[in-house]
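Reopening this one. Same input as before:
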Amino acid sequence: MMKFIRKHKTLSILSLIFLIGFVFVTVAYGRYIRNIIYDFILETKAFYFDSGILGVNEKHYSIENWDGVNSYPLTIDLTNRKNSRRVTNTDIVYTISVDCPTTVTCSLSKNGDTIHPEEDLDTFQVTVYPHQSFSEGDTVTVGVTVTSSAPYVKTLSASYTIGVEKSNFTYEIVDSSSSKYLTVNFVNSIAYYEVETAFGSYAVGDKINLDDFINLTPAEQANCFSAIVTLTYDPQVLEVDMTDLNYIHHLPTNYQEQTINGFQYVKKFSFKIPASSSTSVLFYKNDVSQNYTYPVVNQTSIVQVSVNKAD
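Same output, byte for byte:
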């Protein structure tokens, strides 16, 4: 045998590599199938512990909108139901663990909890804080695992590869299955304003710092902007909350409505976001079973966002 191996060294090495790869794939695939079968068995016992984010076979997400300076929140949902008719009729007790690299700190909003039968949704947040200076293109990978301990043991997990993109404007959609509404969160990191309508000694295109802007009158401030955001969406899928302050103070430009069954629904509107600030807009979902979380769950945003930023 050894004589054959020495004589056919290349063939032997290739065979060994193939064997190792075959074993690895077989074990990994076997684990994948085993998890699916175990999950099916638990469902036959009327145990429904699930998440729109986590999975019995670890889900993987790639995110590219972290500035590498501020904290980055990850919101995760958990549920005790398969659908409106199939609900776990006992308490589900679970714990949470996080695998966090040394370049960041990961903070949990809670270490675990109990989902009661009358509740259909639970959420928690993992917040990632930078420990060092990051450059554009750098990444960190964070793993999140949730394990139920009663009435049955089940593990759900996901890993997030968070990439740094040096941007002065970002947004995200926070949502979950069974939620009646979603929230679009915006962060404007631009620390100044641009004049869009000339006034006093200021011409169109002039830049105004925060200290000078504060000293302007409200009428003068209205002639400036730091970021103007325009939201476009399908009113048959989403409906904006009419009491949302950003909608109430929307600009007269870029405003559009759509007629559906004889009624007018908003489909597009714009509003201003102050410099160095954050804000959000609330939308109601027509299909509560959907999870429109962006960019973690979906690579495409259900709300089209365009922004005109101060140069």
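So the earlier flakiness isn't reproducible anymore. For the record, The CA atoms of residues 294 and 300 lie 7 Å apart.
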